[in-house]
Structure prediction request, 174 residues.
Amino acid sequence: MAKEIELKIRLADPQRFQEHLAALASPLGPYHKTDTYFKGGAGSFRLREGSGRATVCRKEKVIEAGIEVSRETEFAVDTPQAFREFAQALGYQEWYKKEKRGQAWRWGDILIEEGTVEALGWFAELEVLLDEGADAAAVAGARERLQAALKTLNVSLDCLEPRTYAELLGHRGP
Prediction:
């Protein structure tokens, strides 16, 4: 388990953003992720498939001033189809799917993923992962580093996208 501090921005000029990143961050390579969200009586979770791996993640999150703070419980699954069947047997139904493609970068302790979200356009996500036991001061420090990164990348705080992808895709929460 971990705490994820994350912000999302909509990219009006992806090429300009990528040029700034190339001058500051180290490329980690391309990514392609297919996320299937499930919803049931006890909430929702995601099955992510990409790069030959599959993981399940459940988040408890709060979004304040466009920055998401989540407690994540995540684990790998060997057989995604068997997991889908298992989830459905427990009463969870497929809610929606989301596909993301782009480039990942590392800038200090910040992971940056920029690319397209199918049906929505270009976005960048900046995140810092903290230990589960991280206190409020550590979370505040991560928030400050993310905001400072935006400033260095010449991105206004007005570009923060406070809505979740589910909301942007027109899906109501569990």
